[in-house]
Amino acid sequence: MLMEHGSCLFGAGRVGEEEPMMGRLVWFGMVVLVLLGVFCHEVLAQETLTPQGKRFLKEAASINVMEMQMGRLARDRAENPEVKEFGERLELDHGTAYDDLQRIAAANNVKLPRQVERKHNVLMARLTRLSGREFDRNFVYAMMRSHTKSVARFKKANRRLDDDDLRAWSVRYLPVFEEHLSYAKGLAQKLGSH
């Protein structure tokens, strides 16, 4: 028999106190499960990106932040309706690309930049001082240069990245950035840029 001299085998108390003891055991089990869940979540949320992947993620995010802000600038300052439209498209496409990068970053516990890098601030400041046709031509030329570099980076990434999510992102958005480059070149010819 589990009971001896009016006390429970577990030493918790008297006859009739088995239910509170069982409640304590259930509560203890639930606490253990919650703690185990938190531990497993922390282990799974640890970074799984390679150092190269982490660098690419941050660089791609920085490029997209800059392109979004440049698009906004063109939308607000351009004289030519096609340049304004191009700015709107840049803001939308690079915003979507940034959001997708944000999901990859969150899954890998990486914080992405939300501001334009210092090196891009110089270009933004220069373009902000321009207006009309001069703004349009300089903006389009800057977008040609920027997208030429971005396309080259992402082509290289498609060959070298070991991180599947980042490679998939690069493969998905490379055609979008190539399209931006092609559009910028066409606008440059129309505007007589540089």
Describe the structure.
This protein has 194 residues and is an all-alpha fold. It is 77% helix and 0% strand. The protein contains 6 helices and no strands. The chain has helices at residues 18-45, 51-77, 81-107, 118-128, 132-160, 164-191. Helix 2 (51-77) runs antiparallel to helix 3 and helix 5 runs antiparallel to helix 6 (164-191). The model is unreliable at 6-12 and 41-46 (pLDDT under 50).
Instruction: Estimate the helix proportion, in percent.
Output: over 70%
| DSSP E strands, number | 0
Multimeric organization? single chain
Strand content: under 5%
- Terminal CA distance: 97 Å
Largest sheet: none
Mean pLDDT: 83
Specify the structural class: mainly alpha
**Which value, in Å, is the CA radius of gyration?**
29 Å
General form: elongated
Unreliable spans are 6-12, 41-46
Sketch the topology as an H/E string, one letter per element: HHHHHH
Number of helices: 6
